[in-house]
Design goal:
The protein is 36% helix and 23% strand. With 204 residues, it is an alpha/beta fold. The radius of gyration is 16 Å and the shape is globular.
């Protein structure tokens, strides 16, 4: 089990990490990557959109360019992250657990999670919850990190978070009942060309 593969430890970590998160995040998650996530979600004007693990609102800002902020619902485990996001947006922010989403079945037109699955103790359950609350025909999109190429960096990273492979993510999507599954592996910079995998699937 990785250090942050535990909800309490992850919450405490982000309580303090939130202070510098916005300065570090662009190194790993670029505007180009965010645009790809949103493109694969197929968001249309007027949609009701869920973001799971919304952090300080980087992906949320992109969603807000496509739909009114009042039609965006964001769930995050950490109050401090949410408070920072609230200074940027007027979306609906809720303290909650990705593996136990506080919404009724078939509520949203799409569900997105970018850079959060690596902290979920049970990723399969989290994905299943996103499927549960998404309408038939809607898209579920996950951005998951790949293992760093550098051995030393990889060992440290693996000690604090999960690194599901592309194959594992696709398998979870299939088991959750998603269809028309698609994925792309990309990174923010040429020298880091495959930093993440972005996977989308359609709710039957």
């Amino acid at each position: 089990m990785a250090l942050l593969d535990h909800k309490h430890r992850a919450r405490v970590f982000y309580k303090y990490f939130s202070k510098i998160y916005d300065y570090i995040n662009p190194i790993f998650y670029s505007d180009l990557m965010r645009e790809k996530v949103l493109e694969m979600a197929g968001i249309e004007d007027g949609d009701l959109v869920l973001e799971v693990g919304s952090g300080t609102g980087f992906t949320t800002l992109g969603i807000a360019k496509r739909v009114p902020q009042g039609r965006i619902f964001c769930v995050d485990l950490t109050l401090e992250q949410i408070e920072k996001a609230k200074k940027k947006l007027s979306a609906n922010f809720i303290i909650g657990d990705a593996e136990n989403l506080p919404f009724k079945d078939r509520t949203f037109d799409s569900a997105i999670s970018a850079g959060s699955i690596e902290y979920w103790p049970d990723p399969m359950r989290g994905i299943s919850e996103m499927v549960r609350v998404t309408k038939s025909g809607g898209k579920v999109v996950i951005l998951a990190p790949r293992k760093p190429d550098n051995i030393l960096v990889r060992k440290f990273a693996e000690s604090i978070m999960l690194f599901p492979s592309t194959e594992e993510c696709i398998d979870w999507f299939k088991k959750a009942g998603l269809k028309n599954i698609d994925f792309v592996e990309m990174g923010p910079y040429r020298f880091w060309s495959k930093l993440v995998v972005i996977i989308s699937g359609e709710v039957p």
